[in-house]
Structure formats: structure tokens, C-alpha cells
Design a protein that fits this description.
By secondary structure, this protein is α/β, with parallel strands linked by helices. Helices cover 38% and strands 22% of the residues. The longest helix has 23 residues. The termini are far apart.
């Protein structure tokens, strides 16, 4: 169980003016999350010869201990980029983030797995990456395997796994860490309904135990069930931050208006 911080303790996550700039073309560097980089590039309307663009700019917020925050926004809005920056995968171009406590992150399916190693070997490898000792992993091994539900594939190289099997094993290992802070990037979209239900139950239990969670999801039911608060990113900038219902309403209103503008622009002249 995660111990509750004493009254007056600082937030577990403090994000101060985070910006992330990408450079297009060979040798650009700084490519944190390829999915976000490509999506952001084509969603901003830059001139063809523009080499630099900002996936995030001036992002500032804090998350107190035990709160669950949902990051929402269209593809390319900066959600995945923000999580990778907070998880120290690429450094920010500007600003800073302060994280307090043990951090676990599920950013992409199979992150931290070696394709040539078996599922069993990757449990130990990934657990070590997340800060568990070999003894810790051995003590939790049966629970991890049971949650992952990969059956006879445990001793098969993970390069032969489906994306769903990758996800189940990665999630099971990450959940065994009992972190103070957990980042989750859209991983629930890959699993089947039974696995999603188990994940939600596990996340409910982690929240009740005091874990601070920051997640992205395009599934409204996940945001509604898990999150105390939502942050809407639009074009790499915080467009809204507050209780889930009004933030989601703002997000959906923007989606509808954007679709109406596209339809109007694409309509043939009368």
C-alpha cells in the first residue's frame, strides 16, 4: 500500500512550463514519440519548408498525491509526448517537471521488453528496469503470470506475442511495483473486454491505496470511472483543466465544431 503523505506535502507531480520542440528532416533529433511527432506535424498547418514545430508549449499543472488525472485531446495534441517527457524518455526543450516517489510507466506496448527473450525472462528484465530486486520479482511472479494470462506462452520469445499478450504481460509487471506515481498511455485500448475489466479493477484498487495516476484514453467510460480531473490538450497547449464533466464537454464541443468546419470547407459550391 502507498503511504499517504503528511498534510501540507507538495504535489507528487509538478509540471512547470513544459515545452517540447521537434525538428523535421534528417538529423533533426529530439524525436521523443514518433506517433505524436508525425500527428502533430500534420495537424498544425505549417508551411512545407518549416523544419521546427512545438508538440508541447507552456504546459503547467500539478497533481496532488492520490489524484487520478485524465489527459484528453485529439491525436497529435501532445498527450503521449507529455507522458514520455514526464517519464524522462526525451528531455523537455523548455520548462521542468518534478516527480516525487517511485514512478512506473506504461507508454507503449512492449516498452522495456527484449524481443528475443521469453516472457519469463522479460518479467525479470522489466521488473528490474522498474526497480524491483530479483527476490521481489520471484515473490510476485505467480501473481504477475496469473494476471497476464498468457498460458503456455510464458517460455516463448515475446517477438511471437500478439499486441494483446505484450500488453497483458507489461501491465501485469508494472502493476506489481506499487508505485507512488503511474503513467498510462492508451494501453487499455489494446486489450479484450475481460482484460480491460481486470485492469480497471486493479487501477481502482491502486487509487484507493493512494497511487497518483496520469493517463490518456479515448474511451470516455475510462475517464469517467477513474479520473478525478481532466486536462484537455489542444495543439500542445492546455485548453482546459478541471473537473471531468466540464472539461470533456469542452473537448467534445471542439470536436463537433471542428468536424462541422471541415465539412463546410469540403462542401461543393452551390
Amino acid at each position: 500500500m502507498v503511504e499517504s503523505p503528511p498534510p501540507g506535502s507538495p504535489p507528487l507531480i509538478e509540471v512547470r512550463g513544459i515545452g517540447k520542440r521537434y525538428t523535421r528532416g534528417p538529423g533533426g533529433g529530439g524525436q521523443g514519440n514518433l506517433k505524436e511527432a508525425v500527428s502533430a506535424l500534420f495537424s498544425r498547418g505549417h508551411e512545407p519548408d518549416a523544419r521546427e514545430f512545438w508538440a508541447l508549449r507552456g504546459v503547467t499543472f500539478s497533481v496532488p498525491a492520490g489524484e487520478c488525472i485524465g489527459l484528453v485531446g485529439r491525436n497529435g495534441s501532445g498527450k503521449s509526448t507529455l507522458l514520455t517527457v514526464l517519464a524522462r524518455v526525451p528531455p523537455p526543450t523548455e520548462g521542468e517537471a518534478v516527480l516525487r516517489g517511485r514512478v512506473a510507466a506504461l507508454l507503449e506496448v512492449g516498452t522495456g521488453f527484449h524481443p528475443e527473450l521469453t516472457g519469463r525472462e522479460n518479467v525479470y528484465l522489466n521488473g528490474a528496469i522498474l526497480g524491483l530486486s530479483r527476490r521481489d520479482i520471484t515473490e510476485r511472479f505467480d501473481e504477475i503470470v496469473s494476471f497476464a494470462d498468457i498460458g503456455s506462452f510464458l517460455d516463448t520469445p515475446v517477438k511471437h506475442y500478439s499486441s494483446g499478450m505484450y500488453l497483458r504481460l507489461a501491465f501485469a509487471v508494472a502493476m506489481s511495483v506499487t508505485p507512488e506515481v503511474l503513467f498510462i498511455d492508451e494501453v487499455l485500448a489494446v486489450g479484450d473486454q475481460g482484460f480491460i475489466t481486470r485492469c480497471l479493477e486493479k487501477l481502482d484498487a491502486m487509487r484507493a491505496a493512494g497511487t497518483t495516476i496520469l493517463l490518456t484514453s479515448h474511451i470516455p467510460a475510462v475517464i469517467d470511472r477513474l479520473c478525478d480531473r481532466a486536462i484537455y490538450l489542444r495543439g500542445g497547449v492546455v485548453a482546459a483543466d478541471g473537473p471531468v464533466a466540464p472539461v470533456m464537454e469542452r473537448y467534445y464541443t471542439d470536436l463537433i465544431e471542428g468536424e462541422q468546419r471541415r465539412q463546410s470547407a469540403g462542401a461543393s459550391p452551390g
